[in-house]
## 1
Amino acid sequence: MTDIVGIDLGTTNSLIGIMDSGFPIILADKEGLRLTPSVVHYPASGEPVVGRTAARMRVIAPERTIFSVKRLMGRRPGETDKDTFPFSVAEAQGKVSISVGEKSTTPEEVSSLILRKLKTNAEQGLGRSVDRAVITVPAYFNDLQRQATKRAGEMAGFAVERIINEPTAAALAYGLDRLKDRSKIAVYDLGGGTFDISILELNEGVFRVLSTNGNTRLGGDDIDRELVRLLEERITARHPEIRNDLKTAALLAQLRELAHDAKLRLSEEPAVQIDIPFLPGNRRFGYLLARRELEALARPIIRRTRSHCLRSMDDAKLSPHDLDEVILVGGVTRMPLVRQFVAEIFQRLPNTSQNPDEAVAVGATIQAGILSGDIQSIVLLDVTPLSLGIETFGGLMNVIIPRNSTIPCKAGEMFTNAVANQKSMWIKVLQGERELAKDNWELGSFEIEFARVPKGVARVGVQFEIDANGILHVLARDTSTGRERVLDLTSAVDVSDETVEKMIAESLDHAFDDMAERVWTETAIKSNELLPAVKSALTLVGDQLTDRNREEIERLVSAVTEALESKDIQKLKAANAALDEGTQHLATLLIDRAMAEAEKRRAQRPPPTGSR
Ligand code: AMP
């Protein structure tokens, strides 16, 4: 039996598994249950309670009971849906924290309590300690979110051996390594709070992720919210006098519980009876909710997954008939409506052979088996969901690792100084698909120093490395001194996850404008290099030109200056080209002068002395 456990740290539920004689098994708790609700309750006194007991407290003490904390992991102020939680989420001093009574905690700490609970459950079941783990995250988690997850694992007492993407884990769980080579698989994962679509290819026993897409704020929780709203409407229609009472936290939490329960049952039954026996003033409420009513509410939410699926297929350069399998992951995919919808998009019936709630945890466990050497025939490769690069002169995005690159990966480029006597360079690390740096997200920045040198002489190598956990390490090295700096991303990540999806859509919407802006900026940079160079050449060797040639160059210089002001790209390109062409002779004179000077210096140098 291996020492490494596989963990699905879910928005709604979490699971833990271990390889047992070559088989992945999901471990049950003392009550024999394998799903641990990702809920933590903080009583007024005493230790926090985690899991099922905590989940029951959501109704009784909603303001002291933390759920869906995954939605807050690695988030920065301004990026949370804080008003959708019944507990208090604070955004201050660059941090997101959760207040429970007097106490303040962090999403990482809450997640670490969930992980610790899983660890205890596993250890009790196995009768020995487990200290190493593989933990899954949504494919769309950015660096900060992955690091926050890793830290939560460490706080819970695990050595986190690998952070892997959930859809990739699921493909393993479905046993897709048994498919024929070159099989293409779509993994449709709709969970409590996240949607992921991934297209994988199996090739000689190796899984490769061809593309990923998704939305970190789309899932079953949205359906629950709509259903709660519907119930509120129905109750107020019947009892308008208790409209305000419905806003109390306890009643809202109760409605949420009822709505959730009804949603689950409606995946199996055509209609369910909802009863609330004790509304304020001794009123009661009963309602027969039909599946089609739930479906009417859920349809717009589920429909939002469509554009992601199409984009992912597009990125993988595939059409539905190229796919060999479509697999379902996440509790919401038990809904008949979701299955129909997936069948329509991919023009085939999805494979439902696995338990969609457990597939990710089973896959994480198989990955743990791979890492510990128990399983050797499969290797996993993931891809980067968004491009990574740095800002270069003129505010442009210089991509170093393009979107959908297979990870782990490493890439680098050499940069130089744009200005004479510059003695340092700011390395601004960006993530996104837009041409201009300002439209992408800044993950962090740092300064690398070098000796004062003329323009274009510094040589700074910048290397990006994404490790097997999907975490980015940025290294900058000045080649002349060997001085280097490594970016500490944890303190500087500034990514709004909410807009991951928006980012890709915007890059498509603005593709033409962005490209025009990039071409303009690059052309203007060229003009701004040409103009001072011509000016200094005229000072040095201008007297060797004929008057006509000199006037012609001055006319071409004015044309470039005018074109720069006109903002007309065609005019500027033509003016640059004409100035380039018109200064050929001037350039030759300059080179001749430099060579003559070098010759003179050589002649003046004393002869070398011998060694004896
Ligand atoms: P996960 O994040 O994969 O644990 O998925 C949890 C989400 O799936 C929650 O929104 C659950 O309400 C939802 N879910 C679980 N089982 C069902 C079911 N039988 N029918 C509909 N939704 C479900």
## 2
Amino acid sequence: MSFELPELTYAYDSLAPYMSAETLEFHHDKHHKAYVDNGNKLLAGSGLEGKSLEDVVRGSFGKNAGLFNNSGQHYNHIHFWNWMKPNGGGDTLPASLEKAISADIGSFDEFRGKFIEAGTTQFGSGWCWLAVKSGKLEIMKTPNGENPLVHGATPILGCDVWEHSYYIDYRNRRPDYLAAFVDHLINWEYVEEMYRKATA
Ligand code: MN3
């Protein structure tokens, strides 16, 4: 099965002013598309053609750097678009998720602080995450196209801290971008859906 670029489920200008149409046009139409196109070229003949995307990511890690980088970024971005929605974010969470964050992280405010800190302190390009590992929620950060799948965990929320995700709108103010992501963009229903699947 080859990789395909998914359509955004919201209008390009609907996340403004927190993420502009210009950012989404470049990020989705150019950057994500390049991961899909390059990933498909590298998938051919890799021996992983029939596998699920998750298995391609895990199976190429440490073995086929080109395929790993592109398939990892394809996986990360498919979810990244769904981890956002117009009028999202804030501290009103589905009950099961709020309970799990309180139990495993401490409180919503602790989650918010640690998630933003993980994204701010990721040196260079990468991602910060809320992931399920051994049944518990954890804040993680990874470089480049890596994600929790290759560290024995399942991501349920991630924020792209590559400069292409925020430089048009925030220039070098990565912490402000991360705060806007948490306060105004997160699609908590999708996070909860991934949490339920990860803990089923
Ligand atoms: Mn990106």
